[in-house]
Amino acid sequence: MSTKEKTSEEVLLQEAVSTQNEIVVYNDDVNTFDHVIETLIYACDHTAEQAEQCSLIVHYNGKCTVKTGDYDDLKPRCSMLLEAGLSAEIV
Prior knowledge:
4 helices; 19% strand
């Protein structure tokens, strides 16, 4: 493989990786597990099991990536989480 081909391949890989964003939810002392679970099911299309696992990770680790994807898909989902009183951001 030539240097030019290798460089082009690396740039394409970086572009593919950089288009993915994440919604991170942070722990707080306000929201109940049930509220977080219901909100993740509604806003992020999680199954009940996924939402429960994420709520436990948030509780014990302080944060959890709850959804990965394109920014345009994540923005309205993050807005729903924020409107429901969760602490979340797109990174």
